[in-house]
Each structure stands twice: as structure tokens, then as C-alpha cells.
Amino acid sequence: TAYDILIDDIEDGYFNIPVVGAEQRYTSNATTMLVVDISGSMEDPDSSGTSKLQAAKNALGNLIEIAEDEQNAITDDIDFGLITFSFGANIRARPTNSLPAIQSIVNSLRADGATAMYAGLEKAIQLLEQQPSERRKSIVLLSDGMPSEDASGNYEWPDGPPFDTLQAEVIGLLNTSLPPNTCIYTIGLGEAGRLDQNGFLSIDPTFLSDIANTSNCGNTYLAEDAVELANVYAQVRHDAGGIMAFESQGNIRQDETLALGTFEVAENQELLQLTLNWPGSQVDPVLYDPNGTQVTASYSDAKLSFGDTVSSIIINEPLAGTWRLDAVGVDIPNDVTVYNALVSTRPKAFIKRVVPDVTPAAPETEVATAPETAPRTGQLEFINDYLLWILIALSVAVVSLIVATLRLRRR
User: pLDDT tens digits, residue range 34-50?
Assistant: First the structure.
């Protein structure tokens, strides 16, 4: 029996999904759990003076807006859930494709309490375990500090478990309970290595990286202020859904048309996604395809969305070749603002035949991909069927000839 595996040799490991049992098709449908630290320190200002919780609300708003644009442009089923943690953890929203509802809950968050990271991740895992096995799954963890509450709810300061014990509990949870095909993206908000007012280490990049590495995909990001955090959440969305093709950050002025650069789109891409985000005002992306045609609302299979802090362009089955991106400062009250432009592409899915090893005692082996010059399985099946029909036709012809010869002899 042969099983089918969707997607092969894509950079992001979560696409390489082993199939066990009946034939399955793995789609781009995805469930993302947002796990957000709302401990008391999240009320502190970031390096720009914005409270870290407000920076998180703004950045999550951009992320949700980008996901809404995806929903409007493509047929993928995109669900988000929301978990917050401080003293313990709370399920604020179970996975849903009603993204405005998630946004409303995000806007209502308040900061207080400890950093029960274990409890937050545990609840996210429990909700992901209830999702269909064929869905892509991810956890996006945001925190401005170290875990301060253990698996039993004991608070670290001043007489609770030490930090290394709390960290080991978090890593142990993920190593033993993380559902297959789940990516973890960790975001540290604040100045790495700085001590807070209670003498606690603000964020530990190594620990955050260890969390991400418990999955076979995902990444770790650091942000010191609201602008960087918004950029990070936009990048997480691109990293989780495709392969990055272009990045550009810088300043743009009122009425300026800025040539951001060019990028290549390979053959057989299912999707091209562009996002341009900035702190406020209006900056518009201007995209040209390999033929020099500007992508507007009338462009074939394109969806454009322009917002107050983020704009996006999504194109189904983009042309292969060299694309060009500009940005225009349409309405910038303070004359200059920063921008962040990202472009990612998603390869088309293709099917590879895999014959599993059915010998119980034999170790599992990976089926090698045939060289490009060798005929694919489907081609071999077609050739075999064609030869079989030729053989049947020849047999019928021979029998007819024998019968005709016998009749002639009788005469």
C-alpha cells in the first residue's frame, strides 16, 4: 500500500509531515495559539516609553489584520486561539476563525501578577491536541521575563523554586507533550540580560531559543520596543506560512516614493504575500510583476488591503521572475516614519509516493526521492497499463488469426 505525503523539501520543517494509515492530504489550514504574558511587568514602559502591554496589543492587532487579509484572499481555514498567563493561565479564546473576536479580547487585556509560563503553554498544548491531525499548528509565545510559577502553581519569589528548575519544567513539558507537526515561535520583549526592579532577569534569549527548539520548526525573536515588536509579529506570520523572499526596513518621508528593491519568485508558487507595516499615518506599497505591470485592485487573482498601520497584497499563483517593490509616503504627519516590508511565497503542494516498511522488526527508513530523470510512480503506472492493453490486443489478434486459419482448412 502506498501513502501520500503533501509537500516535500520545503525549508520550514513543519511541511514535512509523515503520513500513517489511510491516504491523507495536508492542507494550508492552520491553527495558531497566541500565548501572551500579562504579568505585572508588562505594564512597564519599553525603551520608547510605550507600555509593553500596549505594544503587544498593537502588534497583535497587526498580526490579526494580516491574517484577516489572508482569509479574505484565499480559501485556507485560519484559526487563532488566545491564552494569557500571569498567576496561572486563562483560555481567553478557543481556536476560532472569528478574528475580530480575538482582537476585541486582546484590546481588553490588563497586566498583573506573576509569569506562569508553564501553565500558559500547557493550556495551549491541550487545545492544539483537540485539533484535526492534518492541520498545521503553531504556538506564538510572547513574554517579557522569566517563568516565576512552577507546574503546581508555586510562586518563585522569594522562597519558591529557582529559575533553572522552572525553566527545566517548561522544556520538559514541551519535550513530552507538544503535538506532532507543531511549530513554536518565541518572542522576548525588552532588553536582553537586563534586571527588572525586583532583580529578576528580564528575558533570556537562550531559554527562549531552547523553547523554540523543542519543535522541529519555529524561531526566536527579540524586540525592545513597540515598533520592533510589530515588525516581529509580521515576520512570524510570514515565517509560519511560507518562505521569506524579501525584507526591507528603513525610513520614508512625506510624498516620497522609495524604491525598496527587487526579489525573485520561483516557478510553481501557490501564493505571494506582501505586508508593509509602520507605526501610524499612511504608507502604500506599490508592486510590479515581472512584466512591469503594477498590481492594482484589477490585477488578476490579487487582493489588496490598505490599513492604518499595515497594508497587504496577496496574489494567487504569481508569475515567476523578478518583481519590484516601491513604497509611497502618502500621509505622514511628522514628515518621516519607519517602515517594515516583507514578502513571502508559498510553493504549490505536490504528491510524492511513499511505500512504508511493513516489517515490524525493521527500522524505519526514509524513501529516497528518485532522480529528476527517472520516471515518477504515476508515469510507471501509466506505462504498465499501456503495455498491458497492447498485450491484450495482440492476444486477441492471434486468437482471431488461428480461428480464421482453422475455418479455411475445414473448407
Answer: 999 999 999 999 988 99
